[in-house]
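User: Show me a protein chain along with its predicted structure.
Assistant: Here is one chain, sequence first, then structure tokens.
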Amino acid sequence: MIHDIFMPALSSTMTEGKIVSWVKSPGDKVVKGETVVVVESDKADMDVESFFDGYLAVIIVNAGEEAPVGAPIALVAETEAEIQQAQAQASSGQASAPAPQEAQPAPEPAMAAFASTPASSNAGSSAPSQTNGRLVASPRAKKLAKELGVDLKTIRGSGPHGRITGEDVEQAVGKAPQPAAQPISAPVSAPTPQPTPQPAPVPAVAAPVSVAPGEVVPFNTLQKAVVQNMMASMQAPMFRVGYTITTDALDDLYKKVKSKGVTMSALLAKAVALSLQKHPVVNASYTEKGIQYNSSINIAVAVAMPDGGLITPVLRNADQTDLYSLSRQWKDLVDRARAKQLQPEEYSTGTFTISNLGMFGVDRFDAILPVGQGSILAIGASRPQVVATPEGLLGVKRQMTVNITCDHRIIYGADAAGFLQDLAKIIETDPQSLTL
């Protein structure tokens, strides 16, 4: 039997994919569960695995070329004798036509001969990691399980639709402990291992692309996805609310903890997450049936990509994760995001987004609402400002301006104002709570 290999949908927003490289060549034997091709989705490069044993007979879409989701990209023959038949079928143009694309949030977990990543879910999932009798796990999880000798059947996945992630495997063998951080001023009764000190990352603006005058440079896959998402997001009625926050106390805390590997991005994400606990509607999203209140607080933080576009790695359950672990996770996410190695659940499960251009010295700006979320916070730079003190005197304080963009279908002005007030209270008067 000859199987069509279709371009899989690796994310809910993906409409076409680009073949990065074929791991197998025509005539090579293919084993079920083995990576056969690397596909560039709108956000990352993903290993795609075969559902069947057989032989890669014909490659229809070569490396570097693009194809719509559901379009045939190769043929797999179950036996060597069928390879010539598959080649003749491809030559005559009898490969299956692209599967019709309906307006659905995501494809089924399986598409023809290739495994496609299940659609992401903001609310998370506690479903078993079996789909129609098939174990659902990321390629990284399978690799780690093999290296560590872990049976994937014993692990409950935390990814979309119960998908097992690499972090699930690490936690199963105790390689990813989440130690509770201690208050900075707390006495130390016994030696406690501390995170390896790491220098604070120096933000760098992406270098401008060298182009000839008058040249038209086509969008890459990520830039196309950004364009589609931005156009879709403009369909929502949005409003914006600004707030000025004094950062002296937060800056003092940062000076004390940055030598332990804590980043300002982690501090801000933690502060936002704790504020969202009190304002669940700001962490919610619009659906045609009503307001979708998310069961977890997943903070997405915008990161510029070196070759254009942006991606939003997600700090999942940021309100429940200690500051030191959050910082380590963030560094790992950024490194893998820029290497295009993130799994879909690591960039598509955000429930609230932060865009921090303040690190580049930007005073204030407005952010565009991400698709599928109710809010995004734009953070400006913290600068010394001359202000009036309660005693009627003049003083100097460091202040930053933040602007929240909200979906007015579910969030109102009072909701946004209340959230910003609580965020300011944490940063200005109780930043120590971020270390608990």
